[in-house]
Design brief:
The chain is an all-alpha fold. The chain has helices spanning 9-24, 26-34, 41-55, 63-77, 80-92, 97-110, 113-133. The radius of gyration is 16 Å and the shape is globular.
């Protein structure tokens, strides 16, 4: 997928939906779509076309880098529910647990220690839940 100013809104939506499903999972997107109603439908379309269909499909950064940037931005803004969702996405995008830890440590310096402390708490909850489900994502090799 590439940035093409001649794409239609429907093409951007379709591209966005494909990336959204790859990054967040079919189950997550299916839940979001099932919860869509007359009040939220336009916002869901907006997110799909612009966030996923225009930004996440751009060729300038790979998905691992986009995940790193997204985690940092969500920490900075204190959007913890979205942060947890994107910890899962970061693993799906190929970030290792140790790389997520490094992103959180980096955020302690440039955002704040309290923000990073909260990020570690939320990330650990996600990782523990994934471990309990048996879908914990990539882990470092045992030493």
């Amino acid at each position: 997928m590439s940035t093409n100013p001649r794409r239609t809104e429907q093409e951007a939506h379709a591209d966005g939906m494909a990336v959204r499903r790859e990054v967040l999972s079919d189950a997550h997107v299916d839940r979001a779509e099932a919860g869509k109603d007359a009040f939220t439908a336009e916002f869901q379309d907006f997110i799909c076309r612009y966030a996923w269909g225009e930004i996440w499909t751009r060729p300038g950064l790979d998905r691992r880098m986009r995940s790193a940037v997204t985690l940092t931005a969500l920490i900075a803004a204190g959007h913890w529910e979205e942060f947890e969702m994107h910890v899962r996405a970061a693993l799906r995008n190929g970030l290792q647990r140790d790389e997520i830890k490094e992103i959180l440590l980096q955020s302690a310096i440039y955002l704040s220690v309290p923000s990073a402390n909260n990020a570690f708490k939320h990330a650990k909850q996600v990782l523990d839940a994934l471990d309990a489900e048996g879908s914990g994502g990539p882990r470092p090799p045992a030493s």
